[in-house]
Amino acid sequence: MKTTISTLFLAAAFTVNIPAISKAQTHHTNAVSLHSDTSIRPFHINIPQSQLDELKRRISETRFPDKETVKDASQGIQLAQLKELITYWGNGYDWRKVETQLNALPQFITKIDGIDIQFIHVRSKESNALPVILTHGWPGSPLEFINAIDPLTDPVKYGGKANDAFDVIIPAIPGYGFSEIPTELGWNPDRVARAWDVLMMRLGYKKYVSEGGDHGSVISDALAKQAPSGLLGIHLTMPATIPAELVKPINAGDPAPSGLSASEAQAYHAMSSFLEETQLMEE
Q: Could you give the maximum distance between any two Cα atoms of the chain, in Å?
């Protein structure tokens, strides 16, 4: 339960609260906002205590719904689990600890296609390290990859070989974390992928690889389809494996076609139900 709650908190912290205050409460050198600006500026996080206190106050005033009348989650999140989450969010989570952890890493910001992109950039001590850009999911943030940085940049320390080393670049998707929130439509996976290639070239990398999970896998996949000259390959932890002929009926909510095995039919119904629920939440 603690792991689940931690994950929910981190996702919420970086996709709901932080972006809304990042412009006013973080600082970086050089506030130039011209599209032609290609500078890479150091970035440091400093959320005012007054904002953290206000957040805790609002959390403490949460009005809870009545307890569910069933013993499972068929009526939504269960009250006990919700209260545990709120208690952890309000009293158990130490933002300053996370802030210090992030500020200990080399963080930067640069403007690409009119948007300030914030990213972590950790170079390996190995001279032949392969650059890798890691893209987080939705909802999510660069925090997803924090524990992977050291093993990737210093594999020898973990029993690997020097030639297994990577230079690690972890950007925040526009609108997430401390990257700027777009004020126009169009920041789809293709556009983000193009921005990632610009970022890698701007950092001086002529060749690199890309990794993504969840929505990050969609962006990495888009990058592969664009096939920029510097991209050597991609790694996905959530590959899109739906057969092309099933995409339309799944999206339409049609019954499973005949000829599917039992496991395939089960997967079909699960995907169809997931998309239907997602659409209902968006309405």
A: 61
- Residue with the two structure tokens 């893209």: 135
Residue-averaged pLDDT of the chain:
87
More confidently predicted of 170 and 258: 170
Measure the CA–CA gap between 257 and 28, rounded to whole angstroms.
55
CA distances (Å), origin 51, targets 1, 12, 28: 28, 16, 19
What b/e readout covers 237-273, taking b as 16+ CB neighbours within 10 angstroms?
Answer: eeeeeeeeebeeebeeeeebeeeeeeeeeebbeeebe
Band the pLDDT of 280: cuts 50, 70, 90: low
Q: Give the type of residue at 24.
A: A
pLDDT in tens, 18-48: 333 344 334 444 444 445 799 999 999 999 9
Nearest CA to 207 out of 134, 129, 154, 151 is that of 129
φ/ψ of 20, rounded to 5, equals -70, -20
Which residues have CB under 8 Å from 222's CB, separation 6+? 189, 190, 192, 193
C-beta separation of 118 from 177 below 8 A:
yes
> What contacts 24+ positions apart, CB below 8 Å, involve 273-279?
275/250, 275/251
Residue 84 sits at the vertex; the CA angle it makes with 78 and 90, to the nearest 5 degrees, is: 135
- Sheet of strand 166-171, all strands in order from the earlier edge strand to the far edge: 26-28, 40-45, 107-112, 115-122, 166-171, 130-135, 208-212, 231-236
Query: Rounded CA gap, 116 and 181, in Å?
Result: 8
Report, in this order, helix, strand and coil percent for the chain, each rounded to 5.
45, 15, 35
Structure confidence at residue 128 (pLDDT)? 95
pTM of the model: 0.77
Both tokens of residue 101? 């952890």
For the cut 90, the answer to whether the pLDDT of residue 14 exceeds it is no
Give the separation between CA 141 and CA 120, rounded to whole angstroms: 11
